Amino acid sequence: MRDMVEIGMGRTARRTYELDDVDIVPSRRTRSSKQVSLAWQLDAYRFEIPFLSHPTDALVSPRFAIELGRLGGLGVINGEGLWARHADVEAKIEQLLELVGKGGYERAVALLQELHAAPMQPDLLAAAVAEVRAAGVTVAVRVSPQNARSLTPSLVQAGVDLLVVHGTIISAEHVGDGEPLNLKTFIAELDVPVVAGGVSDHRTALHLMRTGAAGVIVGYGSYPGATTTGEVLGIGVPMATAIADAAAARRDYLDETGGRYVHVIADGDVATSGQLAKAIACGADAAMLGVPLAAAAEAPGRGWYWPSAAAHPSVPRGSMLHVDDPWDLGGESIGEPVRPTLERVLFGPSDDPFGSLNLVGGLRRSMAKAGYSDLKEFQRVGLSVRA
């Protein structure tokens, strides 16, 4: 039964929970972390670790997508970002970082908007897809609901493996200036699997599952200091509750279809291995990570992070966030710490006691302490709510 509270005369609201409001409660025998598998499969594609990258230019260049794929995850290129608009993306990002380095935070968002106002060039995006594909890893590209119909044919022709239809909040039918995007019809006409989101409640998740999506994204990549959707739109996603609701929709849809399983992907409020473990425990199959990966040396943002929504032309919903660098590995210049490799962020070794390094190791150990050997089993672990 939903926990409803009265917030005023005649007005009630549902009590919801963030990931930091819940804790994992081990109640089985423990096991060795070496006996834990983090593998999962999305449609025909198998991944050794349950991590996707948030589709932002701060993280995902073709090089980054290749490295994350090599390490067992999935890099998602922003099909409407800088890699689809500029031939000299690294120079554009350097320009952005120089501006922020001089204290021009307000101007940084305006510059992001300016850079994203350049026309999209399908050839540039096709070249990025081809580069990742040539490396032998799974290729995923994000498009918005507004542009999915126009961009998808060229992406399919370029050889994309997975399409991610992703917005702050989306529904099964997007009504825009032109013909509405009916995701059910759109997905049925494609030969590639589609992941869609974000959603924040059971009903919308179930509707998206009924479109034929292979995966549903919960949340919109929220992170304090980087994402400002709450301040701008007043919309928030309590991730623990939202993931649990989507997992319930997955069970309902599994019964409804007689066995079709749709993966739930958490996108928001995950910065440490402990929060990652809680997301899986609440029912997620995988997590779309943003800030945790931004410190990696391979990330084009060089320690800076901004969500894809930061570049919205009229209602930006993100800012530039400098990811803390507690991993000074002996750089010659104080204030210029050596950023860890993506491999170290994911697999360690770690000297950070707060869970920002060795995300894979932290998740494995959490599952092992609770006695579970794979991700689907771990979704049944006990949870408690903090008073």
UniProtKB/TrEMBL annotation:
Location of the IMP dehydrogenase/GMP reductase domain: 19-304
Protein family: Belongs to the IMPDH/GMPR family.
Keyword GTP-binding: no
InterPro entries from the UniProt entry: Aldolase_TIM, IMP_DH, IMP_DH-rel2, IMP_DH_GMPRt
Protein's UniProt name: GuaB3 family IMP dehydrogenase-related protein
Species whose genome carries this gene: Nocardia aurea
Key words, A-Z: NAD, Oxidoreductase
UniProt keyword Oxidoreductase present: yes
